[in-house]
Amino acid sequence: MAKQKAEKQPMPPLGVWAPAVALGWLVPGGGHFLLKRNGRGLLLLLSITSMFLFGLMMRGAMFQPQSGPDPLTSLINYGGFIGNLASGALYLLTVWLGYSQPDAAGHVHDYGTKFLVTAGLLNILAMVDAFEIAAGRKS
Amino acid sequence: MPRMNLSHFEASFLFALFASVVLGIVTKKTDRDRLRYGAYVFGCFLLALFGIGWLMRLGHG
What we know:
The complex is a heterodimer. Chain A has 6 helices and no strands. By secondary structure, chain A is an all-alpha fold. Chain A is globular, with a radius of gyration of 17 Å. By secondary structure, chain B is an all-alpha fold. In chain B, 82% of the residues lie in helices and 0% in strands. Chain B is built from 2 helices and no strands. At the A-B interface, helix 3 and helix 6 of A face helix 1 of B.
């Protein structure tokens, strides 16, 4: 059991990975571009940005970090907000440009909301990938 | 920003496509493995889409 457990790798210095992760948050795939993985960066940029834009065109709702009447509603609100925020500049631009869509009934709005949150969650995966590349754990 | 109305299938297909591309890229270490895993995940999404769709169809009668 102990032999199978992977050895814990040391944390690389902040200066090695922080710029790639920060740029990856701000621009989907940006961390990969910084690390000269242009092909992968372009695919991440296209996929995540497309998902976010489709979410906007379907008039998905953005989550607000607010408490609800029960813990589950609060969890959904805060979790959804983190998912939205993880899209970086896409989210910031959208909010600054005044996008405001109240939560509405209908499957198209519902898909839109999920697209917006999932774009952010996929961007978190891309940021983790950029971290692993910057830290030398992955090519 | 144009407004878009997609069917359940169209929205699910696009979701599967974008998610598969990202999952393929971040999960594997070689381009060949990334392509294969992305295609595999996309296939799983579609299988679940049709499978659960038919289950709901049959369940509702």
